[in-house]
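I have been asked to look over a protein record a colleague put together. What it holds is a sequence and that sequence's fold in token form. Please read both lines and tell me whether the tokens look consistent with the sequence. I do not need a full report, just your reasoning and any doubts. This is what I was given:
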Amino acid sequence: MKSLAEKIAPDAIKKLIPYQSARRIGGEGHLWLNANELEASCVYEGQQGAYHRYPDFLPDKLASAYLEYCQTHAPAMGCKAVAVRGADEAIDLLVRTFCQPGVDKVMVCPPTYAVYEFCADSIAVEALKVPLLSDFQLDMEEIISQLDVVNILFLCSPNNPTGNIISQTDIITLLDLAKDKALVVVDEAYIEFAPQTTVVGLIEQYPNLVVIRTLSKAFGLASVRCGFLLADDSVMDMVTRLIAPYPIADPTAEIALAALTEKGICQMNTQTDDLITIREWFASELNQLEIVEQVFTSSTNFLLVKFNTPICMYRYLCSKGIVTRNQVHEPALSNCVRITIGSQESMRETLLALKQMEAERI
């Protein structure tokens, strides 16, 4: 006998495959290199407040602080910022605001962040797929041929899980072509690892451009759940009609504000520089292993690594207590594993495990 929930849930929800987050997949081990978090927790100075009242609907102080931070990389003129509960909520809000279930479509370019398609599927919005080219750049000809039939084009730069930057020239071309047709959403979750590539400065010229940001990656605040939507006023007017009544808890806002102070930003920049140094060293070491077919260039805090062994390297590393992210579900990424960059010690242990694997094959 069907439950009430089964009876009344839409077919789209019944068919929906839950997004397999790193926490949901889980695993057993002592090195967690699967979710692109910072390995060590960050402690920011900040004053605790009274929590007995509801928080602001849209915390203006936090939005202003983030816009000021954006100015350090690019002129953030002509755009507004809205704080949301992580980049995932930003994606969900955009789909629900600008797409009618069963009617409208979005476009995604896999391999990329799976939540774009997941959010569309959850409300019966079709997600057209235009796979990236072999160099992980956009298939411009195919995207342009279908641009007229979508409401939103989702791009990720630097891209997850490939780690590369999407050509800004291509993004501008698409913004021009979609000017009166579709929103071009650029997810910049990893932008602190390549700040010179941000497109925030283009929002004033292109009101159809939306940028998604987060404090989960370089700022090391994944558990705080704080992200930002950056867009033209016309876009924000629609989004804020749908946003939850109290989207940001006061403790979250306080921690985020502390992170966005001069001291907090300095701390973030220092740890980002350290991670980039470790990433490049680790990539160089990996390239010397015979079991490694390719280490893809990365502008993030992770490396996508392709192995040439029939053994599943994800499972092998798990057997050593090292949890990475398997990419077997992506047709273009067979034999690939995504490895988050942790401390020098953690990467040495990972490297040693891979060298042991290589030695066992000889």
Q: What stands out?
A: The CA atoms of residues 282 and 348 lie 8 Å apart.
